[in-house]
Amino acid sequence: MHSDVIATEHAARLAAVDPLLPGSTPFEAAENAVVLEVATGDSAASGLASRVQVDRDAPNAPWRALTEHRLDLQLAGPQPAAALDALLTRWDEHLRAVAERGDTETAAIVPRASRDAAGAREMLHHGFAPLRVIAVRPAQRMVPATPLGTPGVKIRRAEPGDLETAVALGMELHSYDAQYGTVNWRDGVEEILAKDLAEQLKRPEPPLWIAELYGRPLGMVSVQHPGETGWISGRVAAARVGYLSSLAVAEAARSSGVGTALATHAHHVLDEEGADVVLLHHAAANPLSTPFWYAQGYRPLWTYWQRRPAVR
């Protein structure tokens, strides 16, 4: 089956299950990326196998393995699960030639449309687990035109003097998320986080807000505005994309309404800027964030399946 046909059929199949998914074009080999193709019966699959490496002190290092092997895939034909199984087997052969066996700083990542259930069993059989989700919230989903007031909660834009508070909240969130494998607890994480937050707070209008509960700063939310989200906007069929970077609430303030107030404020800001959708990442297994975000109007768009180490 020709690569153009695979891409076209794959796009049509996904469009039928989720209209917010973007279209597909045939994969092309590039530096650190090869195209793998397999056929089984009257079905076929194409995959772009790539590798990304980051330094331990890089700004994005806390959120990923230092070496990520990624497989973007396209499935066509009446038996997509069988085609996926064959493609994963082919990719495993490739990984055994390029990845170090047992290295826990390597990960094999497969992004899949969340509503595309075909092949989930095959993913599990190859040792993958659904780890991280890109969730989407279409703009102005049955919410008030202005943020709701929450008793005792005041939300204000962060200032440079809030750096210590922001770092403490960020580290508490990072420590909790590390339990679910979506972030990494390594030496130097606090310094990386502090540098990023300090740069945000230097902006004339920092994209970060602090929530005070009866005068105590116990929560924060940060966003990326439309125009700053080119790195992720291609994952959704929308013209103007906002991104909710982080929302952290101190343990002492959980279930107080602080988180909902912060999310409502962030959505109001992005809706006012004309965002068609808001995206965010969350840990699939997190028992707090998953129900919270879906109560705020989000739903899964992409699920990132991971195996770590990449080769066992």
TrEMBL record:
N-terminal signal peptide? none
Extract the Pfam families matched here.
Acetyltransf_1
Per UniProt, the keywords (alphabetical) are: Acyltransferase, Transferase
UniProt domain N-acetyltransferase: residue ranges? 153-312
- Recorded protein name is GNAT family N-acetyltransferase
Native species: Amycolatopsis melonis
